[in-house]
Amino acid sequence: MSTSGRSYRDRNGHPIVVVTGMGVVTSLGAGLHDNWAALTAGRSGIHAITRFPTDDLRTKIGGTVDFVTAEPFSAPELSERLADLAIGEAVAQAAIGRKGDFPGPMFIAVPPVELEWPQRRALAAATSGGGEIDYPRLLAVAREKGTELHRRFLFGSVAEHLAETYGTKGMPVSLSTACASGGTAIQLGLETIRRGDADAVIAAGTDGSIHAEALIRFSLLSALSTQNDPPEAAAKPFSKNRDGFVMAEGAGALVLESLEHAVARGAEILGVVEGCGEHADSFHRTRSSPDGHAIIAAIRAALDDAGVSPDEVDHINAHGTGTPENDKMEHMGLEAVFGERTARMPVSSNKSMIGHTLTAAGAVEAVFSLTTMREGRIPPTINYEVPDPAIPLDVVPNVARDAAVRRVMSNSFGFGGQNVCLIFAAEPAQ
Q: Is 319 a catalytic residue?
């Protein structure tokens, strides 16, 4: 990317924010190279769950990351290990700072840190004779034994552990805005650099929380696909025969810098974070408002923040979960903003192959959005065999497509009407 003769400020006088490092891990593999090869080949990472028995469950499939382990299983521990892989790849690509001495703060989307029921029962038995958990006693026992549990109590979250590993500056921020969380982490990083509070940040999202209780919770909401056989055909975003999303695990990470800082140190610029729009509707704990006003507002806010018109967006990396309601609502929002062009613009869903990585989704799909521009190739929406006439979209069906893509919108719409839209560009605006 040429930077000669360019301003380091955007139209509002804020520092232009660029991406200098990317990292990702999903059920397709660890690292961007393997993930991108699988995505563009239309290969699915969804498979039968073997981590726990599923005999009596309606949903028996997921995008578990089985090549990264945390034994005995712990969602916080696995989430941290996935994030470590993604952040490590991003920081290495950015070649910024010394090992363990990153020159800025970290914002990371994480799932709720909680113990699963087997661990809860074991702790209850160990600390209070099988009754209610005596938390002061539990903390004292953990401190005495120097256990991993005490480390969790002491640091409070995954963010503090990773901040220690990478030597980030200031208080690390962990956040959870449902399935919009990864996008929110990038939004916070963008705003931090724009304010001039830092020249570089790590923005990441991670989720390693597929366990029986979590699967049952989503199943009780009728949110999950029950089309278990074959597993790789279960996720069907925008198809008429879609029946729910597929839970998945993964992590994505970006190193963000001001353009001036990146140029000064000779960094390779991988893309630009042009804008972000966020809006919540407070309509329901899990559903979006039927009029779609919050989704529409988030899309419009992202375009306004980036200073671009709808016609200047070449591709949309859709939230595209494959649930009957979410796909319909996303189409409604896009049509309200992009009008008749909605049916012609490529709108594809990575979730058809990797599943829904929940807290990590916005960050994982940001990496794929940036790579789409760099490679000039749009990943497909696989399993698109039965189009839904109520959702007329060019979903890049089943086969990847070569295309010149200069600007991508990446959507993340979470439970409770928490919506974040990001605008990425290949180069800073002239």
A: yes
421 is catalytic: no
Q: pLDDT tens, 28-46?
A: 999 999 999 999 999 999 9
- Neighbouring C-beta atoms of residue 275, cutoff 10 Å: 24
How far is C-alpha 98 from the geometric centre of its chain's CA atoms? Answer: 27
Token pair of 34 as six digits: 């393997």
Catalytic residue status for 14:
no
The ranges assigned to domains in the chain are 17-113+156-425, 118-148
Helices assigned H by DSSP within 95-209: 117-128, 135-145, 148-155, 158-166, 181-195
Query: Contact at 8 Å (CB) between 194 and 11?
Result: no
Catalytic residue among 161, 279, 315, 356: 356
Quote the pTM value.
0.91
b vs e for 284-298, b when ≥16 Cβ sit within 10 Å of the residue's Cβ? Answer: eeeebeeebbbbbbb
Residue 194 reports pLDDT greater than 70: yes
Marked catalytic residue, from 161, 179, 261, 331: 179
Does domain 17-113+156-425 fall under CATH 3.40.47.10? My reply is: yes
- Tens of pLDDT, residues 280-327: 887 666 667 778 889 999 999 999 999 999 999 999 999 999 999 999
DSSP string covering 224-239, please? Answer: B----SSGGG---TTB
The whole-angstrom separation of Cα 174 and Cα 41 is 34
Q: At what angle do helices 324-338 and 293-306 cross, to 10 degrees?
A: 50
Catalytic-labelled residue, pool 279, 319, 331, 421: 319
β-bridge partners, 224: 245
